[in-house]
Amino acid sequence: MSDFYANSPHRNPIADNDINYVLNNFTTLKTYRVLRGGSWMSIPRYVRVAPRFRFSPAHSIHNVGFRCVRTVPL
Question: I need a surface site. Which of 4, 5, 28, 38 has the fewest CB within 10 A?
Answer without folding.
Answer: 28
